[in-house]
Description:
Blueprint: H1 34-42, H2 56-63, H3 68-78, H4 83-93, H5 104-113, H6 120-126, H7 129-138, H8 146-154, H9 159-166, H10 172-181, H11 190-198, H12 204-217, H13 237-249, H14 256-260, H15 275-285, H16 295-298, H17 307-319, H18 326-332, H19 338-350, H20 357-366, H21 370-385, E1 422-425, E2 428-431, E3 441-445, E4 448-454, E5 460-466, E6 472-475, E7 479-483, E8 490-497, E9 500-509, E10 517-523, E11 530-535, E12 538-543, E13 546-551, E14 555-559, E15 561-562
Antiparallel strand pairs: 1-2, 1-15, 3-4, 4-5, 5-6, 7-8, 8-9, 9-10, 11-12, 12-13, 13-14
Helix pairs in contact: 2-4, 3-4, 5-6, 5-7, 6-7, 6-8, 8-10, 9-10, 9-12, 10-12, 11-12, 12-13, 15-17, 17-19, 18-19, 19-21, 20-21
Amino acid sequence: MIWRFPVCFAAVFLMAWPATAIEVPRGLNDCPSLEACLQLIDQVVPARDDGEGSNATVLANKLRRFGDSAKHELLKRATGHQPGWRNVAGAILSEWHSWTPSDVSELHEALRKQPGGWVARPLGEIATPEAIQALVEDLPKGGENQTDFALSNLGARAVPYLFPILESDKNAPSAERIIQKMNTLAVPFASQWAAQAADPGQPVQARLGALRGIAAIGDNARPSGEVLHNLLHDSDPRIRKQVDLTLRAVRDPVVVEEVVRTCHPSAAPFDPLALEALKCLAEVASYGDGGRDVGATLLIFLGSENGAERSYAITALGQVGFEPAIPQIEDAMNSADWRVVYAAIRSLGWLGDTSAVPVMEKLASDYWLPEVREKAKQVAGLLSSVGRVSRPPRFSRLSENGDNPFVVDREVLDGVPDSCKHWQWKDTSFGFTARSNQRDTELQVPDGKFVGTNHGEWGGELMWRPKSGEPNSIQKDNVVGIEPDADGPIVLFGLAHMGLAYGYALRVTKSNGETWKSVEVARLPAEADSLVTIGPDLFAAWSDRRVVVFSAKRGILGLATCEVH
Length: 565
């Protein structure tokens, strides 16, 4: 059930229905007349239109025994002056399912009174030209609503009625939205529209509408793209601009060079998301084999100081099938950043690099993170048996989702029980002191102190406050913990907020009056929660119920085990 505006209101005369639903008053089974039943519903109808439609089926079933008289009375209320009743009546009528073309006029009037409302569904069921035109007339008045639902369900029958809206510079997005929702149902129109767009004898607005329609179909209209290539040099700048947008929407390889021109490493070394690179590289990767010719342009990302950028580039190179990158991606399996290693294993599988199997088998045996071991085992097995791992056809979202990935992050991790209080690393036993994730953290040293702040989603910062002189900002990020070390403190940073979960440890040094230098010594699997020293140059960081043991000089050494008492 699609709601326009989900909302809660108090229950009155309620029969065990959800608090947000249209209330079903007691007595509807026994009310002797339509008038009596409507009087009962009168008592629970809100004064305003809240968009709620739940329990409409129940109410429709209870009123249907009164036949067409109930239908027409509800239509009157759907066009009346009371906003709450207009919505409730429309919701009930959306579940009535007994319609004839003679009802279109009243339903059209109800839709005018309540744009995007529930009566759009009956018009979609009737589906005469008049009914479809009524829906199309309502379409530009709002965002996603019941009119969208009705038109998209009509599929190809609705497309000719949408074309005049595609021609409108102002209203075209609403028609494009419907065509996108139709998925493959509008594909048969792509070749017709391509011919129309390519015909200089057609009016400019008709050509623009055709190009917009093809763009709305998206990838499935790619075969029509070749007809449009010459339009990139059309004499009309409006056509040139729209055809570029359309060819990008259908992922036509002819424009991928333009797409890749905006791609260049730009993220700070410890930026956990590297959003600009993510957007651009994911776009290039979505061209699949059509992006292979620009693969060489992406190689610059493999030298980025940002691990996220490197993992995105490795993923994109695998997705476009750029085999010349194989040696550099093989080298990336030696990275200290687990995200880069995971991405490299995955892409080498897509590229069919059987020569990488021995290294993958070693990673499957002794890498510190179980999920990387498992990915290496899986890919090495497929390369050995069938020679290649199938590439996903298209990314569905910007994070790992089974084998349809882009971002390598917490989503690839398996769940770990949250039951351990004490941990063991070789002969060392240790625990963690409970702490708040949002507080100041300090480390005093002879010539000043390091101060870390943590304000969660609002950010934090590592500051150096000397005993004499001005304070310096070293790193802007949430500080989780600071531990002393002979060559410079170890500082743990991280955040978990709205799907973003990361953690990393830096060694901070300064010599001969130079500026502060930060070197990453450990990239955690997910958010960072606590940091302790457990031995000389030996630290432990809690991350998503795992304990990562690392050295500032040797990097991550492994995961501590839960100590059972």
